[in-house]
């Protein structure tokens, strides 16, 4: 009985954030795999024994030491449990030497202690996440079969890779996570600097209040617009720089014929040239036949430039009607995503008002995404045939130059400003969802492992900045921070 009473008195409050972080991370990483497993079972004819083996792998993979749940627990523990433990040890040590009762540490001292613990825990978590030999082996095999023109990426010769004596060493599994943490840390530093210097005479809020208000209102939309431009440009011309799942999602939302994308890429490479027979006429000839258009429309040797009607893919000659049709199709596509999410959110406290608010929020978010897609396509048409040639004659900027990248650039620069359709509170959340992905496209996704220490320093320092602001006595903050961190992690 005494043992049972003593067990019931055990206080789990200090380790609650760690356990919560591990449980949430396990749920977030395992749930999608379970859904994928259920789809696979429904479509395939696996035996019961095979199904159980697959299910066991799904459930136990995330329990491995080098998976995200363990790393998440270490990260959150670095900002909550570990500082408490170290603080208690320090106070106990001081009390022994001074022979006085343990004193509470100064607030600034404890803040520095939490920052140090967060840095060390992030350093350890980074090492755990990168202890994945399967990832290194698969990456080596894929890089051996690919031709990469990037001096910053280590690409050994194929025959060396296939030799048993060669053991390639790659890094880059956590590059998305690192870029996400860096963007969040940069946001924290900028906001802190802005807030702490408000009393200074040179601060914009004191000298130019209107300018300061303008900067606050346009900061998040500008970040999103620039990030969206980088992402869309990469999706067109360097899709390998985007995460595979994210690239697939953008392709599904864009809903464009891959032959048109290929034609634009070939035009940029100089293999699809107007006025010359480069052997690329069959590329768009099949699309012309499917749309009931003359095959000459897709032949760069006979048509200069290719009419927008072909790019509209059956929506007619009008660029405006094409933009409206894109808006409607994208809105339907977005509603299929946002409505289920709102339904899940309403399960907590269903009511008539919350249902209406959920539908309204889904419609607003869907309109934002639909405007994003429609403005991209309409800007492309305006640049290449409608407005661009009237502003700058074809003698200065030729149709070849427009279709080699300038028209796509116009679409990339225009689409991101649709963020103004979202509520101000949502703009920051969306902006810092896409900003890390834009940053990740500007750096090598795979690099020689000898440079991994640089990424580890950036990762640990960024996580320390983000988690130091976390209040250890509020578990809901653990959920919020962990949810944001999950946005940046790769599929492990």
TrEMBL record:
The keyword Transcription does not apply. Keywords: Membrane, Transmembrane, Transmembrane helix. It comes from the Eukaryota. InterPro entries: Tmem135. The keyword Transmembrane helix applies. The chain crosses the membrane at residues 20-38, 109-129, 362-380, 400-420. This is Integral membrane protein.
